[in-house]
Known about the structure:
Layout: H1 8-17, E1 25-30, E2 38-43, H2 44-49, E3 58-62, H3 64-77, E4 80-87, H4 93-97, E5 101-113, E6 124-127, H5 130-139, E7 151-154, H6 157-165, H7 179-186, E8 193-199, E9 213-224, E10 237-240, H8 243-252, H9 256-262, E11 264-267, H10 270-278, E12 283-286, H11 292-299
Parallel strand pairs: 4-5, 4-10, 6-7, 6-8, 8-9, 10-11, 11-12
Antiparallel strand pairs: 1-2, 1-3, 5-9
Helix pairs in contact: 5-6, 8-10
Amino acid sequence: MMMGLKHVQEIASQLVKHGMKKTTPIAVISGATTPDQKTVVSTLEGMIKEPLNLPSPAIIVIGETVRFHMEKQEKAEVRKEVYLPKIGFERSRLADLLTDVTVHEIPVSVISFLAYEQDVIPDVALFTSRNGVEGFFHGLKQDIRAYAKTVFACVGKSTAEKLREYGITADIVPESHDSQSLRQQLNLKQDTVVCHYCGTLAGNHNRMYRGYDYRAVPVYDNRRLDLQQIDVPQDAAIIFTCSSNVERMMNRMVHPEAWADHGTAYVIGPSTYQTCRQLGIRNIIQAQRADYESLAELIL
C-alpha cells in the first residue's frame, strides 16, 4: 500500500473491524531504498494502539510477507556456532570461509616432517594432502628437474594449490576429489611406479593400486596433542576435515558418547564419513565436494 502513512491507524482499525486477525503482522517502511530508510514492524492491534513517528513517504505491507521477513531476520540474527578440530595452531583457512559463524578452533595434532629416501624417480607422484606436498619438498634431495617426466597427481583443489606454490602445476586433479576417482583418471599401465607421499597414518592404498609398483613414502607425522579435555555441548556442530581428527577430537571431549548421540558431524569426504560411522556418531552430513568451499556452503 502506497502513501498511506497518515491513515495507517485507521487502515489497521478497519481491517480488524472487517475480520482480519489482530495478530496479523504489518510493516511500515519510510524512505524505502534510501540511506534514511526506517522500518517499523508490528501487528494490526499494535499499530492501532501506538501512533507512528515516521516521515513520509512510506510503504505499508500487511500479511504473511511481513511474517516471512521477520522469520528471516530472526534466523540471520542467530549466530551459528561450530567446533573445528585442526592440525597445528595456525588459523585454519576453513575458519576464514565461515563468515558470520563463531568458529571454535581446537588443535588436536601437530605435523612434523620426516627425512625420507627416494631410490627411484616415480612415474607418478601422488599427493592426497597439502602436508604431503610440503613434506615431499622438505625432504627432497634430488634436483626437482629429475622429475621432469613424472606425472604429478593431486586429490583436492587445496592440495593442487599447495603444489603450485612450489612452482609445479598438477597434471591430474579429479573433479570428485577422492582417491578412487584419481586412480581411474590416471589410467596406469602395468608396472607403473606410483609414489604416494603421505603421512605415517595414511590408509593402505595397496589394494587400490594392485598390479602397479605402488610405494607409500611417509614424509610427515601427524602427532596427537595431549591437551586438557573440553566440554562440548551435546548438540554441538563439529567439522571434520580428515579421519584422524575425528577420534582425536572425541578423545578430548568430556562426554563423547552424549555428543555422538545428539550432535552433528560435518565431514569433508567418504573416508571421514566412514570413520564417524565406526565411532558411533549418528548425525553425519557429508559435503558435496571434498573441499573447504563445499564444507563452508554446507554450514552457511
